[in-house]
Each structure stands twice: as C-alpha cells, then as structure tokens.
Design a protein that fits this description.
The protein is an alpha+beta fold. The chain has two domains: about 5-70, Nucleic acid-binding proteins (OB fold (Dihydrolipoamide Acetyltransferase, E2P)); about 80-239, Recombination protein O, C-terminal domain (de novo design (two linked rop proteins), Up-down Bundle), CATH 1.20.1440.120. It has seven helices and eight strands. The chain is elongated and about 60 Å long. The chain starts with a strand and ends with a helix. Bound molecules: zinc ion (ZN).
Length: about 240
C-alpha cells in the first residue's frame, strides 16, 4: 500500500504497488469504516493481499477487500516512520515515471522489513535510493570518468550530476555533487550488498551520498522528496 487518501464520507482513495511493479489506483468505499473488508490494511506501507474490480472496462478500480500481511510501519520512532515514507514516495514517483519492474516492489518490501528490524536508517535509505536509480537505468557506471576515461577507483572519488554521469574532478559538471573515495566505494559496494546487513554510515560519508542521490532522483522524476526533507530536518533539530 503506497498511499491512502481521505475521500468523501469514510471513503478512501488508495494507490497500490503490485508485486509485478504496476501501480493500481483504486477507490475504497467506506474504507475508513469497514473492518471486515479492510481491517488494518489501508495504511501506507502495509503489505496487503487485495482484490479489486472495475465497474466497466477502463473505469477506476474499486477495492473490494484487503487483508494485511505485514502491518504498516509504526509512527514511532518518527525517524523510522519518515524513512518508510521516503521509500514509499520514491517507489510511487519512479513508478509514475513509467518504470514497471517487480524489483521495485521487492526493494521497497525488503527495505521496510529491514527498517522494522533495526537496520541503520541512513545506510538503508542510501542503499534504496541507489537501487531505485539503478532500476531506472540512471545511476551511471562509477568506474571511469565519462569524459576522459580516467579511472575513478582507488582514492580518486568522483563527481556525480544528473544526465552527465560520473566524472573526475577536472571534468566535473557545474553543480555536480562531489563524492570522496569512501562514499564512492560505498556506492559501488551497494550493488551487491544486502539491505538487512548494512552497517551504519559515518555522517561525512552519508551526507554527500544523500545529496548526490537526492539530486539524481529529483532530476529523474521532477518531484521533490518530501519525506526525505522531513527526515533531514528532524536530524538537524536533534543534532
Ligand atoms: Zn575526466
């Protein structure tokens, strides 16, 4: 369940991400009331088994039943809740951009699972952001500068910018985000890492990674990442 919006009376409008990676926007009549049909399932982030029908071909789907299989992320602690919202928001944005891929569902599902079992929030989100970009085909290879071909391995670090890919310091595009050697190495390792076994990121590695990945995601979908903004503000207030 990606989104749940209030409608007239006790109705709800919902957006579901299917296991196939497709989005389904549906109307849930009396969604806020009917425990029998929807008990606990109409919450963003809940994994549900759902049924829906179409009154006629091409009309909006009507949700007839939804059964929770994993409850929605708890609102407390707030940091983990915002993190889950960020995962859902990314999945919705990237799916609306036309990416239909079962790996989007699996990525969100595994990351929400890992969030609930204590995985470090920052590392998990950077992992998810990097993978969303990979699935959309816009995280460039990080091996060599795309202008001069110089290796970006070892202690070199790199500069990332939307549309222009990864470049060395000399050929960096205006406004690109600089990643040091550690952040670069982390991003490479995230290809094969497992989301439930990530280690916490140091702030000086996490921050540039967040900025770089955020700008690529925004360039890809044209939408702000509101949950991530809220999470970043929360982090600032607490430090
Ligand atoms: Zn270069």
């Amino acid at each position: 369940m990606l989104e749940v919006r209030p409608r007239e009376d006790a109705d709800r409008g919902v957006t579901l991400l299917l296991g196939s990676g497709e989005l389904v926007v549906a109307h849930a009549p009396a969604g806020a009331r009917s425990r029998r049909r929807f008990g606990g399932a109409l919450e963003p982030g809940a994994r549900v088994r759902a049924r829906w029908t179409h009154a006629r071909q091409g009309s909006r789907a009507v949700l007839t039943e939804a059964e929770p299989q994993r409850p929605a992320p708890a609102p407390d602690p707030l940091e983990r809740y915002y993190a889950a919202c960020h995962l859902l928001e990314m999945a919705r944005n990237i799916s609306q951009e036309g990416l239909v891929d079962p790996r989007v569902f699996r990525l969100v599902d595994r990351c929400i699972e890992a969030l609930g079992t204590g995985a470090p929030v920052d590392a998990l989100l950077r992992y998810a952001e990097a993978w969303m970009l990979r699935l959309a085909g816009v995280l460039p290879p990080l091996d060599a500068c795309e202008v001069c071909g110089r290796s970006l391995g070892g202690g070199a670090g790199l500069h990332l910018a939307p549309e222009v890919g990864a470049r060395c310091r000399e050929h960096r595009a205006p406004g690109s985000a600089a990643l040091g050697p550690e952040a670069t190495a982390w991003l490479r390792r995230s290809r094969t890492a497992s989301p439930d076994r990530l280690e916490a990121l140091e702030e000086d590695v996490d921050e540039p990674l967040r900025r770089a990945l955020e700008s690529l995601l925004i360039a890809l979908t044209g939408r702000r990442l509101r949950a991530l903004e809220a999470l970043t503000r929360l982090g600032r207030e607490r430090s």
